[in-house]
Amino acid sequence: MPLPETIAMRFTLVYNGYRYWWDGFASNEDEITGLLALFPDDDPARAFNPAQVTAVSLEIGGGTQRSLVGIERREASAKKLFRTRSPWEILLKAAQDSTPRYEKYSHAERADVYRVHLSSEMAGSLLKEMLDASPRVLRKKLAALQTPAAILFFIPRTNSVGAAAPS
Length: 167
What we know:
two-stranded antiparallel ribbon, alpha+beta, single chain, 2 domains, 7 strands
């Protein structure tokens, strides 16, 4: 069935027992298609490139008990005195040792998400290595953590809405 020339929408939202509604806007299919093109879809064909990773999340637990601890590249790139590797380099080495699997495009993070599952031995070793190499601020963040079940790597897309311009 062909779409009508213009599409008129009406929106309703229920939140905390209140119902909010508003009239939408009239638009044609080409306008909507153009707007949606700015929001990327999942692309499992995208190759993992460790140089483009800007953040990671350590996934603790699973199911309803799952929690994520985010680590930005800048906070994990500092080297502790007399250490040869930074925590960031340790995380990227974990990605190199077991190839990350493409998971999805995260609109919240404006990035493609890649996952590496960790065995309990590998997770314990990784966490210990990171704690030993971490400067004080990052060590405080990591000290009380249980061993992670997985690492999520975030690679932003430069052509998505709100993404940072390439440098």
